[in-house]
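Notebook entry, structure prediction.
Reason for the run: the old model in the group folder had no record of what sequence produced it. Starting over properly, with the input documented here first.
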Amino acid sequence: MKKATLIGAGLAFSLLFSPFQQAFAAETTGELRKVDNVAHRGATGYAPENTIAAFDKGVEMKADYIEIDVQRSKDGELVIIHDTTVDRTTDGTGNVKDLTFEQIRSLDAGSWKGEEFKGEKIPTFDEILDRYHGRVGILIELKAPELYPGIEAQVAQKLKVRNLDKPQNEKIIIQSFNFESMKITNKLLPKMPIGVLTSNKAHTTEQALKEFATYADYFNPSYGIVTKELVDHVHALGMKIQSWTVRSQEAADFLLEMNVDGIITDYPDYVDPRK
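New structure, fully documented this time:
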């Protein structure tokens, strides 16, 4: 696993500085209380989700990460879209898995958000990696991987050919609601941080969290089930916690108070740990 380095670094810090010095450093520099600002499907409060416009807006707003949803076309192209159909966010209809890349690429994925976004296309995974790696962190969600047998290996290969399967200071993370998919991904990419997504309180028990900690580095719940006790428990097991989806200032402020490690938000400007 990848957690020994984090634990070792924390131990070294605790030996170097007294608790008072640690608290003072955190208060005065902000460096120790780093909360990652994750632009959910890009800055979707301001631009159409999962489009270049939204991702560029997230970068412009100084997000630490953009979050993307990866699926696969009928003819094998990895594409960035949240729903398993194209109906809600484009001018087309049909299941993503049943449409060719040419069909998907011909769709307008922007007009529904505003006339100024007319003509925005559904991006490919390749385009996102090539455009944003090195500029911003990328939180990759495998969306409904059970519909796309072998997608874990396909994603892993895309990362490997770009030499992105090596430690990247956690600037690339892979997550999913499908836990078996994440176990597969962890074996394919043993140096890559892995996250599990859930909105189910049953997954917050001690037994469940211990199981996640055997292969995951992040436990990423919906903010409705976040408590201080949960955050502390996740941290005690050597994992980090990023919570979703923030669409109000109140939700952002709540998660900051809970001491989460990252906030996944449609509005990156709501997240400011120095408030």
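Summary: Confidence is low (pLDDT under 50) at residues 1-32.
The old model has been moved to the deprecated folder.
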